[in-house]
Amino acid sequence: MSRFTTTTNYPLIPNSNEYMIEQRIVSIHSEDRDITKWPSSSNFEIELPDDYVNVSTVKLGTYTFPSNYNTFSLSQSNIKMSFIINKPYYPSDNNTYLPDEYNLLYAIYLALYKHINNNFIVVISEGFYNSNQIAEELTNRFNEVVDHYVYDYLSKNNPDLLPLYKMQGGYKQFVVVYNQVKQTLWFGNKSSMFTLTNDDVACFSYTKECLSQQLDEFYNWGLPAFLGFTRCPISAIENVNPGQYPRFYYGDALTPGDKGYWLIPDPEYKTQKVYYLEAPAKVNLLGNSYFYLEIAGLNNIDETSPFSLTPFTATSNETNGVHNSAFAKIGVVTTPLSQWYDSNSEAVKIFNPPAERIRKIKIRIRYHNGALVDFGKTNFSFNLIFQVLRPQNLRYYITFDPTSYGVSPNSSAISKRSEH
């Protein structure tokens, strides 16, 4: 006892400078957050069930996330596109019509001619699409936006033609189809020339709610980018030979028995001209293939940022990447609707010296462009593995060999050990 302080009733026990590594696993559930304070499961703060002291490493263990995301959503500013009808169908260029039919077609021509320099804005529903669904959605949306405009025009200028217009089904000249072999979208109009105005900035600007967190991109900049277009306007072409219409040669295109012919004029229009175009690149409907998990104080991944044409990038060779931007990068391994389970061996934060105390963590889950992942009302969970250092006291042990007949102080049976 001479090595201990004897001037106190609580003698100090010397530290052996040896530590035991203890592993603590914390299971975190998104539904356990304070939903009144953190309504979004992609951005919340939660208090851990214990104080974790002398933390040497924090590692991401197993996790489960729902695959119920929207590839197309308002928050990602990729549900809008625009077009103009720059050469409306003119009925006087063709054969004779019944008076009522001619009057209706001529009124539609006047309506579209009045709108010839203005964009029609198409807005698709938020969600996840397969190739045929997006083609059908675009067909209906293109026709609907023109139909609403023509209907309003006729209501104000030719209300007597509305019954005939309704009986004929409204405006239904646009057709969008998916070529399963080339994996591209084709846009067509049965009577009028049109241009997809992919440079309409108003369609691809982020909302005020997204401006603070979303980064501009040159790749996924809006709906046309996912459909295979660039930012340049693209105009439809006219079928070269009257009566010869665009066709897919691998089989039926829209209905059984159509032999691949997907764009044929309606009989009431009495024309042999159609207009069509093909997207220059394959359609991309899968959306983001990964997202980032940020945990304040644990981030250790350096991340590049999308190139942005700014005075900084134009005049400097420095990177616009972010240091310690995230804790883990998690791949999205399936498409909606599903749930996937996995683990991550790369997401490790090492503290040197050990972190004194961890009790509360703040979590943010986002895509590479900064937009928060929208899990909706579906919950997720993941494990954090804490490795903490437990200091050990210096102690002596006397071990006894029951097979021996005696123990002496010089015997090898006496050994000094540290508790582990």
How would you portray this structure in words?
The protein has 420 residues and is of the alpha+beta class. The chain folds into 2 domains: 20-69 and 288-389, Sandwich (Jelly Rolls); 80-278, no CATH class. The protein is 15% helix and 32% strand. It has 6 helices and 19 strands. The strands form 5 sheets. Strands 1, 2, 11, 14, 15, 16 and 17 form a 7-stranded antiparallel beta sheet that branches. Helix 1 (99-114) crosses helix 2. It is elongated, with a radius of gyration of 34 Å.
- SS-based structural class? alpha+beta
End-to-end Cα distance, whole Å, is: 23 Å
- Give the percentage of residues in beta strands: 25-35%
Report the count of strand segments. Answer: 19
Measured as a percent range, the helix fraction is 10-25%
Low-confidence stretches: 207-212, 409-420
Rg over C-alpha atoms, rounded to the nearest angstrom:
34 Å
> In sequence order, what are the helices and strands, one letter per element?
EEEHEHHEEEHHEEEEEHEEEEEEE
Main beta sheet strand tally, sense and closure: 7 strands, antiparallel
Total domain modules: 2
* Overall mean pLDDT: 85
| Gross geometry | elongated
Q: Helix count? A: 6
Helix and strand arrangement:
Layout: E1 15-29, E2 43-67, E3 80-87, H1 99-114, E4 120-123, H2 131-157, H3 162-167, E5 174-179, E6 184-189, E7 193-196, H4 208-211, H5 223-227, E8 234-235, E9 237-238, E10 275-278, E11 290-295, E12 301-303, H6 311-315, E13 322-326, E14 328-331, E15 338-343, E16 348-366, E17 381-393, E18 397-398, E19 414-415
Antiparallel strand pairs: 1-17, 2-15, 2-16, 2-17, 3-4, 3-7, 5-6, 6-10, 7-8, 9-10, 11-14, 11-16, 12-13, 18-19
